[in-house]
Amino acid sequence: MITLVLGTRPEIIKFSPVIRAAEAATIDYCVIHTGQHYSFEMDQVFFAELDLPAPTFNLDVGSGTHAVQTGAIMAGVERVLMEKNCSEVLVQGDTNTVLAGALAAKKLQIRVGHVEAGLRSFDRTMPEEINRVVADHIADHLFAPTETSRSNLLAEGIADDTITVTGNTIVDALYQNREIAEEKCSTLQAMGLESRDYLLATFHRAENVDNQVRLAGVLEGLARVHADTGLPVIVPVHPRTAKMIDQFNLDPKGVTLVPPQGFLEFLQLEAEAALVLTDSGGVQEETCILKVPCVTLRENTERPETITVGANLLAGTDPARIEQAAAMMLGRTRDWVNPFGDGKAGERILQVCTAELER
Ligand code: UD1
Ligand code: UDP
User: Fold this and answer.
1) Cα–ligand 1 centroid distance for 37 (angstroms)
2) What is the per-residue pLDDT across 220-275, written as a single tens digit (0 to 9) for each?
3) How far apart are CA 79 and CA 276, in angstroms?
């Protein structure tokens, strides 16, 4: 049996094509939800909108410091794996769920497959970079989304025959849900927005929102972009960001704060935006695929393909740089080519796993 371990918003979304493919091919699989994300709008909404079966197990781990959360996930995943006859555990991305799921499985000598392997920001102050590096170095199957990520793995001495370049499953998720979003939602209408006549922004990275100067810088940058363009700036607020805006007593101006959106609603907001500003990994990829210009509110990115093709610009959190980058990217012609694959990554990943099962 193949066990998928997931626990956060991006993992549910990016694993959805793998789950759909496993269902379609009647592959024996189960899902362990760690409960790292648990608020309705960070969790259940995606199972409902993406029509996914309920997770087989839910560990209900919740929030905590890195060690507390990682330790609790490890103990919970180990408990389930010891009861089940599981031959491969799949993890996706770079969260604490990934680190803990991969470690727990590997120590039980169960094969580990890392989906979205080989991404590197080369910034080890980011918790996500630590999680990715560890997961990559203990995994048996490395599913790299691009040749760039494959090269990163080879440069670290990882064996070539363990790496498969699959594309990123987010392409599959976008292709599978774009039309469904159009059929089911009228998000722009509901928010009183016109196509290409608004900006969309998301930010939640610990290094940005847990730091008062950087968070205030992002908010000031967005306020200036709003003043420069006269366009509404829609900000679906991650719970971590909401907590820190409150804690630092900040009063965001010139932006429209809205709750975290469902995937279908967010997809519509992204696809029709004049420009997206973000510190999210997934949103950098999605804007690139949807041909919407992006400004990244970070000093580095583990998605350099988006910069190379001209879809994305790094701006950090300094208000003047954000303003400048937004002006540049608003004038960008949307003529780049999607570097993240053809939308069949989910099937490729399962092919590798099932071929191994049959050996
Ligand atoms: C985590 C990941 C990050 C990923 C993000 C996706 C790690 C180290 N970080 O960050 O890489 O980009 O998920 O969104 O794994 N909270 C809620 N409800 C929830 C979840 C969180 O209110 O459902 C609040 C809690 O106050 C919590 C805080 O958000 O303390 C942070 O949650 P946590 O899961 O620790 O990290 P994220 O910032 O969500
Ligand atoms: N997303 C969403 N609703 C929102 C914001 C983001 O559905 O209000 C989706 C987005 O389309 C992408 C994923 O969440 O697929 C990105 O998650 P997040 O930014 O939380 O994490 P990261 O990708 O940075 O790890």
Assistant:
1) 6
2) 999 999 999 999 999 999 999 999 999 999 999 999 999 999 999 999 999 999 99
3) 42
- Ligand 2 contact via 266 beta carbon (within 6 Å): yes
Do 3 and 81 contact (CB within 8 A), yes or no? yes
Q: Residue 252: CB within 6 Å of ligand 2?
A: no
Point out which residues pair with 150 in neighbouring strands: none
Residue with CA at minimum distance from ligand 2 atom 23: 282
The Cα-based distances of 141 to 132, 144, 165, 200 in angstroms read: 14, 9, 11, 36
- CA atoms within 13 Å, Cβ hemisphere of 205: 25
d(CA 50, CA 176): 9
pLDDT, mean of residues 128-154: 98
- 68-80 burial, b if ≥16 CB within 10 A, otherwise e? ebbebbbebbbeb
Residue 283 CA, distance from chain mean position:
7
d(CA 13, CA 20): 11
pLDDT at 54: 98
Please indicate whether residue 323, judged by its CB atom, sits closer than 6 Å to ligand 2: no
**Nearest atom in ligand 2 to 270's CA:** 11
Burial of 54 (0-12, 13-18, 19+ CB in 10 A): exposed
Structure tokens of 31?
A: 């899902």
- Among the bound ligands, the one closest to the CA of 37: 1
Domain boundaries for CATH 3.40.50.2000 within the chain: 2-168+341-358, 184-330
Burial annotation 200-235 (CB, 10 A radius, 16+ → b, else e): bbbbbbebbbbeeebbbbbbbbbbbbbeebebbbbb
**AA identity, residue 165:** V
Residue range 2-168+341-358 forms a domain whose CATH class is: alpha beta
What's the CA gap between 356 and 87, in Å, rounded? 9
Q: Looking at domain 184-330, what is its CATH homologous superfamily?
A: Glycogen Phosphorylase B; (3.40.50.2000)
